[in-house]
Amino acid sequence: MDEMDAQRLVEQYGDMLYRICAAALRSHADAQDAVQDVFLKYLTKAPAFGSEAHRKAWLITVAVNHCKNVRRNARSIPTDPALLQPGETRREEDGRILAALMEVPEKFRIVLVLHYAEGYKVAEIAPMLGLSASAVKMRLAKGRRLLEEIYRKEYL
Question: Where are the CATH 1.10.1740.10 domain residues in the chain?
């Protein structure tokens, strides 16, 4: 892979991976480090993929697994509600939703981000996270309920 291919890969998937890592790690610096680690792993392994969808799924799976390892080794992870969107949140409502999302436990938060922010279907999320489709559906349902409860409690 040459420098131009690497740059294209970062431009194409960098923001998406950042949102996933930020949702998992709740730290701007840790999310940036995680994204760099994912791209470094991709460049050093140089895996061959049959399609762009397989490449994207591999990157997401590696990012999710890397974040699990970081969280396992972390003592405490601060919550920064502006993390899911690089830069400043444009609307106050978006900021409140993001703040509430950051309070949802990680196992539900990751599924919510993959489904609603990244547009993945349940059947696509399941293998990325090593879960059954029914487990993903259950986490989506529970995550939505938790997000609504937190949002109502904090912002309404």
Answer: 1-80
